[in-house]
Sequence to fold (134 residues):
Amino acid sequence: MINKSVLYFCNMKYIALLLIPSLFVSCYQIERNCNDFKTGTYKSKITIDGIIYKSTFSRDSLLQVESFEGTVDSTYVRWINNCEVVFKTINPKNRAEKKDIHLKILTTSEDSYSFEYGYVGDTYKRQGEATRIN
Fold:
């Protein structure tokens, strides 16, 4: 007959072997070098309802100028922290353009970053990717 305490100890040993690796995985944080992307010239790509939209933009510490389908828009840039920025359209042409846009950099690589964005105060977010041109 097998002692119950021996079985309990063996089961606990297997549970501990499963939990220890999960602790290391849960401590892993994605490295984001957001400061590398505060200025520069980029091309971006977002997908909305299965349609891919592409634009190019240049950003410095105060302004971002974006070209999308032949239209050029300029926004003021206000960094909240190293990875989050708010854009305010300089000359809004309609009510939607009067709303500020909040963008959060989610991940970075050597020459690109993934992001989520949406109107300030809105919980609905979209995602995209930007790649440095130069």
Q: What stands out?
A: The first strand starts at residue 40 and ends at 48.
